[in-house]
Q: What sequence folds into this?
């Protein structure tokens, strides 16, 4: 099973951004530190020069007095206290004639300046600053101080600033690393959500697409093949509906664990949504190897699953396609496997099917049919045929069944057995069924007004599974009956046995509501489903229709089953209709067995409303055709 990994480009991009952030932070700290040091240097220098000027200003009055009094001793005593100022290296008092009058020097090697310039002079290379200030009344005072204290203060400040800068940079590195770790964790989590199915921990659809594209590219480089199996769990919805979605998720997890256990470590297993899984097999030598893998999957899923005290049996329909034989790209290969899977499902489920080109043609035809079916109602391509039901005792027409027909402008005449399943799968059957019910009721109402339904007990219309689940069904029926003014008792709704048992409690409630309105109810295709006798005796129904598969075996193998159905129905006070009657021998057997009504080609094929109108006007009696000649 493929483990989803962090994409290298994403991680490299994140590391690069982190490094750039650190470099930017270091540059900003360095610039800030340099600016602080320069500002400190300017401040120290200004303060140093100001102090030197203050000292000169303090000495100037006494020095001028000593010059006026021509007292060198007093001048020398005035300069002597400068020894307490460690930064002052030399002090000179010049007479008005420019000759040295008094002198102080910290070191004997300090020579007197030859010709000092007036004002403040700073020699950064020499490491000193000098100030020559003229005195009132003539003469000048010269002070020279060392810059060493200034340099020392600046060095201390710079060291402290750099230490603070390094600490700040260290904190920045720590914060960037923590931020990067949090971002990495978030990226990993987002990648997990984007690439891993949270229920089964398998790669999801996004990861599957990447893995399959990579597998096909590798197959091209190595001149090998790739097999794809798409499997869909059969009737998984029943588990969710009966045990809840939590149990459904647990079942998916158990299924994924079994798949991982039996397949090779090189095989890639993904859950692409709902109850659909895919397996990428590479290299796949041929279709026989893929068929072997499919059989292995079916076998391991056949074992029961223990889930919260329940023992569940799960089967799957599997579609197989092979690259590069069945497709040349990811999308086509996946679509072909999906087509093969639906073919297996339509063949009875719990099996696999290897993709064939004919399947694609059927799938395309189905898509065309669905697209045209959606337009058929607006294009008036649909119409009804009616097949009479004959009373086997009196030979009279006692009912008719409305049967839908479709002549597509693009695809020609289509059989109901072909387009009705498409309508049910696509959901169009609800609108289609509403149109059939409305059209049949309008026609029946027209016959009723013409006085042609005096011998008829009902007009039958089939009710699909989707219609039975439609919450607006009762409102539609009431609205149609109100519009057409058809007596409720003339309408009969036929529900197949399979639809009835799909959700017994809900359907029983629906049938009671229908019966309360006076509508007749019939179970169609009886004997082909799995009706429980305990339910059957409580169903609010009026009639059973024996499926044509049993009638076809009359007389012969079907006699026992048909006889039992008729006897059981009569014991429950239900009428019995046999459909698919085609021979006089079948009619004779059914009549003797006590069957009430029959319909089939023996009496009449489905016909248009105009043809049936003519037949009703004829008031034909079929009693002579229901008895074998002596």
A:
């Amino acid at each position: 099973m493929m483990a989803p990994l962090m994409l290298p480009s994403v991680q490299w991009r994140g590391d690069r951004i982190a490094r750039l952030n650190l470099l930017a932070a270091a540059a900003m700290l360095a610039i800030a530190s340099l600016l602080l040091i320069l500002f400190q240097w300017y401040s120290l220098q200004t303060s140093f020069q100001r102090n030197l000027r203050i000292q000169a200003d303090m000495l100037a009055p006494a020095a001028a007095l000593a010059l006026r009094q021509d007292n060198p001793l007093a001048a020398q005593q005035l300069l002597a206290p400068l020894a307490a100022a460690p930064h002052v290296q030399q002090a000179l008092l010049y007479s008005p004639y420019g000759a040295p009058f008094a002198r102080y020097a910290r070191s004997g090697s300090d020579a007197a300046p030859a010709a000092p310039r007036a004002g403040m002079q700073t020699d950064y290379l020499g490491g000193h600053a000098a100030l020559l200030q003229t005195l009132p009344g003539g003469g000048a005072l010269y002070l020279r101080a060392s810059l060493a204290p200034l340099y020392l203060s600046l060095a201390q400040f710079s060291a402290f600033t750099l230490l603070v800068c390094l600490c700040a940079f260290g904190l920045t590195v720590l914060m960037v690393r923590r931020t990067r770790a949090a971002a990495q964790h978030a990226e990993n989590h987002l990648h997990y959500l984007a690439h891993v199915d949270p229920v089964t921990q398998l790669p999801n659809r996004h990861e599957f697409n990447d893995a399959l594209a990579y597998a096909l590219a590798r197959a091209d480089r190595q001149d090998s093949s790739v097999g794809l199996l798409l499997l869909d769990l059969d009737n998984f919805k029943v588990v969710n509906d009966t045990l809840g979605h939590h149990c459904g998720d647990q079942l998916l997890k158990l299924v994924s664990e079994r798949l991982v256990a039996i397949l090779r470590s090189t095989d890639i297993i993904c859950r692409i949504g709902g109850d659909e899984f895919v397996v990428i097999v590479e290299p796949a030598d041929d279709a026989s190897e893929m068929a072997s893998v499919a059989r292995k999957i079916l076998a391991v899923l056949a074992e029961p699953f223990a889930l919260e005290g329940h023992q569940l049996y799960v089967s799957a329909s599997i579609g197989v396609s092979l690259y590069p034989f069945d497709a040349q790209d990811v999308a086509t290969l996946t679509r072909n496997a999906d087509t093969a899977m639906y073919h297996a499902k339509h063949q009875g489920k719990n099996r696999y099917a290897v993709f064939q080109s004919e399947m694609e043609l059927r799938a395309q035809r189905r898509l065309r049919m669905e697209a045209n079916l959606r337009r058929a109602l607006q294009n008036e391509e649909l119409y009804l045929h009616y097949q009479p039901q004959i009373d086997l005792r009196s030979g009279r027409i006692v009912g008719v069944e409305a049967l839908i027909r479709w002549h597509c402008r693009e695809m020609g005449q289509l059989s109901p057995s072909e387009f009705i399943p498409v309508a049910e799968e696509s959901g169009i059957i609800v609108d289609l069924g509403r149109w059939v019910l409305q059209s049949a009721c309008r026609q029946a109402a027209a016959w009723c007004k013409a006085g042609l339904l005096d011998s008829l007990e009902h007009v039958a219309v089939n009710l699909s599974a989707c219609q039975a689940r439609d919450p607006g069904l009762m409102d539609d029926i009431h609205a149609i009956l109100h519009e057409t003014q058809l007596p409720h008792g003339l309408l009969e709704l036929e529900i197949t046995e399979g639809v009835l048992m799909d959700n017994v409690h809900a359907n029983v409630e629906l049938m009671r509501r229908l019966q309360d309105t006076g509508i007749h109810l019939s179970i169609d295709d009886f004997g082909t489903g799995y009706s429980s006798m305990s339910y059957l005796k409580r169903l609010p129904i009026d009639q059973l229709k024996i499926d044509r598969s049993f009638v076809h075996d009359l007389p012969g193998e079907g006699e026992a089953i048909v006889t039992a159905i008729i006897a059981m129905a009569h014991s429950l006070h239900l009428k019995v209709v046999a459909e698919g009657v085609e021979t006089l021998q079948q009619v004779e057997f059914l009549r003797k067995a006590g069957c009430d009504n029959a319909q089939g080609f023996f009496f009449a094929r489905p016909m248009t409303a105009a043809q049936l109108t003519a037949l009703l006007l004829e008031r034909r009696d079929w009693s002579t055709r229901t008895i074998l000649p002596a």
